[in-house]
UniProtKB/TrEMBL annotation:
Pfam families documented for this protein: TetR_C_8
InterPro entries in the record: Homeodomain-like_sf, HTH-type_Tx_Regulator, HTH_TetR, TetR_C_Firmicutes
Keyword tags: DNA-binding
PANTHER family linked: ACREF/ENVCD OPERON REPRESSOR-RELATED, TETR-FAMILY TRANSCRIPTIONAL REGULATOR
Domain of life where this protein originates: Bacteria
DNA-binding region(s), chain positions: 32-51
Name of the featured protein: HTH tetR-type domain-containing protein
Length: 185
């Protein structure tokens, strides 16, 4: 007897949702398969049809949130002074904010930020790389920019979007183009 794809997809999503509600409350090492299945209303055997363990659930969620190079929106140059494509990152972050705000938060997965940076670096490298810059140094520049963008957007969500999104994008652009000196002196 073959399972119905809609039912299978819904069962998998129910297990993911149950895991996620637990993950929002506590660290992954404190989550059990039994808790997930009890919350979702399934037995352990059903869980193991979709996942190997609780870490596999988290890994599958993270993989679904990390854009492939073909999924990233193209970077359009409208003028010479474009800077980093901040709107691209803001849209990506807001689209996945339910997950990003937790994964990139204090109790999230420390490796997720690195996975996210590694997924977006190829697009930025292709768009902005200049042959006059040492490729190793350029990689450090990308790491710096992506770390600061991910950090400030995570902070923005933790602060319940206290700044309007447009102002946050302006602030990131100002900091990227002019540095922080003006704000600290």
């Amino acid at each position: 007897m073959k399972k119905q794809p809609e039912v299978t997809a819904q069962t998998r999503q129910n297990l993911i949702d149950a895991f996620w509600s637990l993950y929002c409350e506590k660290r992954i090492e404190n989550i059990t398969v039994k808790e997930i299945t009890n919350k979702a209303g399934y037995n352990r055997g059903t869980f193991y049809e979709y996942f190997t363990d609780v870490y596999d659930v988290l890994e599958q969620i993270e993989q679904s949130l990390i854009p492939g190079i073909d999924e990233l929106p193209p970077v359009n140059f409208q003028n010479e002074n474009i800077g980093m494509p901040l709107n691209m990152f803001m849209k990506l972050y807001e689209h996945n904010s339910k997950y990003y705000s937790v994964l990139l938060g204090d109790n999230g997965d420390p490796s997720f930020a690195s996975k996210l940076k590694n997924a977006t670096k190829p697009t930025l490298r292709q768009t902005f790389y200049n042959n006059n810059i040492d490729p190793v140094e350029f990689d450090f520049v990308l790491e710096y920019v992506l770390s600061s963008m991910i950090g400030i957007m995570s902070y923005w969500f933790r602060k319940n979007k206290v700044l309007p999104a447009e102002r946050l994008i302006e602030l990131i652009a100002e900091l990227t183009e002019n540095g922080v000196k003006k704000y600290l002196l």
